[in-house]
Amino acid sequence: TFVNATTVALANVVNSLNFDSNTLTIDALNNRVGIGVTDPDQALEVNGSVHINDHLIVDDNTTLGDAGTDTVTVNSGIWSFVNPTTVALNDSVNSLNFDSNTLTIDALNERVGIGLTNPTYTLEVAGSAAINDNLYIGDAITDTVTVNSGAWTFVNATTVALANVVNSLNFDTNTFTIDALNNRVGIGLTNPGSTFSVLGNTSIGATYATVAAPTSGLLVEGNVGFGVTNPGSDLSVSGGVGIGSGAYITGAAPTNGLMVEGNVGIGTTNPLANLHVVGDASVSGYTYIGSGIRPATDGLKLQFKSGLNTWADGLTLIENAATNQVYVMVNGALIPQAENNAYFTLGSGALAWTAAYLVDGVYNDAGTLTVDVANRQLEGGAWQVYNTTLTVTNNADSTKNIVFDPTGTTSTITVGSGVGKIDVGTVDPPYSINGEKFSTYFSSMIGVKEEVTGNISTNEYVDGVGYRYVMDILHQPQGSDLWVFSKTANLKLNLDKLTVLLTAQSQAKVWYEVDHQNDLIAFYSSSPSTISFRMTSPRFDYETWTTKTPDRKSIGFVLNDPDTIPAVINMPEYNAEIVKKSDQLYVLNTNGKENREVGGFFTALIANLKAGMAVISEVVADNITVKQKLISPLAEIDYLETIDATVSGILYADNIEGGTVNSLNDQLSLLSGQYSTASAILADLQAKYGNYDTLMSEASTSGDVLNIADLGTPTASIPADLVLTSVSTQNLIAVDAQINGTLLANSLNSIGSDLYIQPDGNHQVHLLANLMILYPNGRVVINGDLLLTGTLYAEAVDTKEATISGKLALGTPTSPSSSDQLLSLYNPDGNLVGSVNDTGSADFKQIATGELIIAAGENASDASASGTTNSNATIGTAILPAGQTEIAIASARMDNNTLVYLTPVSDTKNQVLFVKSKQTGIGFTVAVGSNNNTQDIQFNYWLVKTK
User: Fold this and answer.
1) Among the residues of 297-394, which ranges form H helices?
2) Whole-angstrom Cα distance, residue 874 to residue 892?
3) Which residues pair with 224 in a beta bridge?
4) CB within 8 A of 656, min separation 6: which ones?
């Protein structure tokens, strides 16, 4: 108990005073008091209910409860806000609600509801509402007021004030419209053009109120007055009248006039036209049939108007009282209306029309323009002129007329009296042959020229030249082709411009010459022949018709082909060579291509003759120079002077002179003397020795010339002048030995010099039973195998068949080739430029060929039901069947380095073939990009493998 005023001082710490744990807590450090909590975070925090029997005054912001879970209940009957108060609500749906649905404030959507909890409008009232003062609803410019009430009741006398705007009040869009701005009322429309406008029909009166009026019509039981207060007729109108819809009621009617959209009937209840009159009609002035306003004009006139703006384009009938005639004026189209007759005419007989002055044109019964007067042309298809000529006339110059004449034996077109010009792209003389139509075409000629063709025969022989035919071109039979040609080409003056093309009907060579002095043309041939000629020359007036015609009216073919600067081109040199083939025949190659031209001449004058082989019966020449060999089975020569000569047969000559021949003659004379001495010696030997054995056993070693003691020894030395039938020795040494039979020896050696076999080269040398044969011309024949451990050097190798078990290198390499290269190609620098390895793969720096055949091409094959075709060729043809979008082609050669080239050879219908996939060792798949493949597509493929 604190009897006196007491101040309790607490330590300046958190929860410096606490009653019963959390009943009352005083936080002296933060100046907070908590009831029901031990750690208040507000100046006063109460965890639980609070009951206050008297006023609660809060000077600062106050938060009651947690809007998410708690409820604040106020039992006070009255809330008083002493000062101006702003209630701030959370930005959430139904942030403030009184008695569930009495008053709801939706702060999130800015809506207020009375009598409901979920207002969908800014203010929504569920129930009746009474307003004792003015009520403003919406913005007339942008807002719309919707009333769902079935009836509106005005209890007191009411005046409706409308804004002074167009369509200030509108019911159901166009049912009823009040235009307060223009003081107009509309029924059935939203934009009345008159004080009262009705879109539709109208019924007035007790009798007609329930009767449907005519469409856009009016039923009135009593008199009707417009602009008048006392109508004396069923309808009295002071001003204009508009009846109908659209512009008929929104537009201004003529002053004291009438506009009617529907039909008007006079004397009929069922008008069938805009104006239907049953009975007579009397018009005392102009009558206009048409649209628009026609100014009044004195006189009698009936005018029909077809346009909208002017009356000058219609039909006008005018009465001329002075001449008692009716004039018809037509500007535009005058089209008859078909009734029972299909055709109409203007005038007949003596009453025919003499002229028609038209501005636009003439139309047929279908309304199609046939004669375009404005553009001066005929329209509507083909026009015909029957049984007469048609002339297109030039009034200023009749020589330029164009005449179409179908009346003669043949139809003709004459332009400019036959000397005019026709511009045309293609001329086609048509033919019908065996029921089929064919076209032929005129060829174009640059410049105006004349041509003639024909045949002549060359029968006149000219010694040393050939055969000739002479044509006197200016004196041909009158009327002949050549005579006409000479006249039209004016060859008297233009013979120098003549060109001639000649073709012989044989292998003869042909040419021509022009004798300008005598006006003659000479045709020549190497043999008698018939020659076809084609002569061309400018026409006599060719200077009039130039190729450049800037003033020509026709356009013709349009070509855009700009001229280019010519490039400097080095033409290939003419290269002709004579090549000897393996069959010993010669061929002529011209720029790498074999020339097999055959020519025949009676006499030929040749400055320089070069031939591979010449077969000549007789040769008459001042000099013949043979650089290598002259080979002939028989040659009769009066005088022959040569450096070297080889005769394989028999040489017959009365006298042969030469250093060697003279020495040979001396040796023959010496031989003849020695032969006589040797014969005497042999006779003496025969008398002295009975046989060869006696000779061998009794021979002495004296210095006798017949001493042959050494003949039976291992070494025998035979004098140069000794001739023996046979000799047997281990070593035979001879200066010269002539053996007519057989020489049997284990070896042949030459002491001190080279060993020569057939040094003169006159005869063949046969070795080992003809296994090797050496010919005087250098030819070597080996009838067996040739094994070389060294290097074979040859200018050329020609073999029918060759098998190389090792490697073959062409050229001299700078470094050894790879071990797997069976064939190696080297350039002159020793660099490898091509090879073929042991797997069959070839590598070449470049391949140039006129034709390339790769593997075995496959014929076109269809895909199976699975869309697959089998082919292991690297090049072939396949077909993608209709209805399928892809096809698989098997190929074991396929890998990632293989390129596939596709070429369609049939119509693809704008579909693109492409390689869809590749499978190594299996093949590849070809496809099209769309699913509408309606026909077979045939294509070629080529596999190219890259590194």
Assistant:
1) none
2) 10
3) 235
4) none
Q: What angle do CA 701, 703, 705 make, to 5 degrees?
A: 105
Nearest-CA neighbor of 186 among 200, 172, 196? 196
Q: What are the structural domains, with CATH classification, of the chain?
A: 1-85 (no CATH), 90-130 (no CATH), 282-332 (no CATH), 449-544 (no CATH), 662-782 (no CATH), 808-844 (no CATH), 858-945 (2.60.40)
Structure tokens, 247: 């512009």
Angstrom distances, CA of residue 103 to CA of 78, 112, 255: 16, 7, 63
The pLDDT value recorded for residue 473 is 94
Q: Is pTM beyond 0.90 here?
A: no
- Cβ atoms of 249 and 192 within 8 Å: the answer is yes
Query: For 286-419, where are the E strands, in sequence order?
Result: 287-289, 301-304, 315-320, 325-330, 361-363, 369-372, 377-378, 390-392, 402-405, 412-415
Identify the H or E element spanning 775.
Answer: none
Q: Distance between CA 240 and CA 255 in Å, rounded?
A: 5
The pLDDT of residue 720: 53
Residues of the chain with pLDDT under 50: 296-299, 306-311, 313, 342, 699-714, 716, 857, 860, 862-866
Break the chain down into helix, strand, coil percent, rounded to 5: 10, 25, 65
Q: Nearest Cα to 65, choosing from 37, 46, 90?
A: 46
Q: Are 818 and 826 in contact (CB under 8 A)?
A: no
pLDDT value of residue 713: 46
Strand spans (E) along 759-867: 765-767, 772-774, 780-782, 808-810, 821-826, 832-837, 842-844, 858-862
β strands within 334-425, DSSP E:
361-363, 369-372, 377-378, 390-392, 402-405, 412-415
Compute the half-sphere exposure of residue 18: CA atoms within 13 Å on the CB side of its CA.
13
